[in-house]
Description:
By secondary structure, the protein is an all-alpha fold. Helix content is 74%, strand content 0%.
Amino acid sequence: MRLxxxxxxxxxxxxxxxxxxxxxxxxxxxxxxxxxxxxxxxETAAQLEYDMLRGQVFEHKAGSDEQRxxxxxxxxxxxxxxxxxxxxxxxxxxxxxxxxxRQTVDDAKLEDCAKSPISQLYMNYKIWTxxxxxxxxxxxxxxxxxxxxxxxxxxxxxFDFLKGELALxxxxxxxxxxxxxxx
Length: 183
């Protein structure tokens, strides 16, 4: 279901990008790059999701203030990584559609691009809660450093509302390391 919505977003983004580019070009102004356009669209979507989740976390009276703050840090971390995965896949889909002179993105390619990284991201939450507590802190830190996407963080810094101690990861590599594979 989520991937279908993601594919639909890709079609909307490509259509919106094409129509925006045409309008801007007619005005004699440089159109935004696909990267700029996709980032802007994803920021809007992530802000809406963040605001909704923030409201739910702070309306929920169970747990301490510290637990709610920790939940918000985790939500920011997930939104940042999910936005980067979507960014990467949507930009690739737009360039692919432009190269093939299509007006829409290839939904199957878009879903294939995002399916595994998004699944690994959500699996990481489960692994994190089950395994990291029993993992030596230095091993956990080594796993994080080995899976961190430093170049991607330069290409795709966090949105302003997500600022904080955030990082982007290759979750397949991170998950394998945390559960003991590849250490």
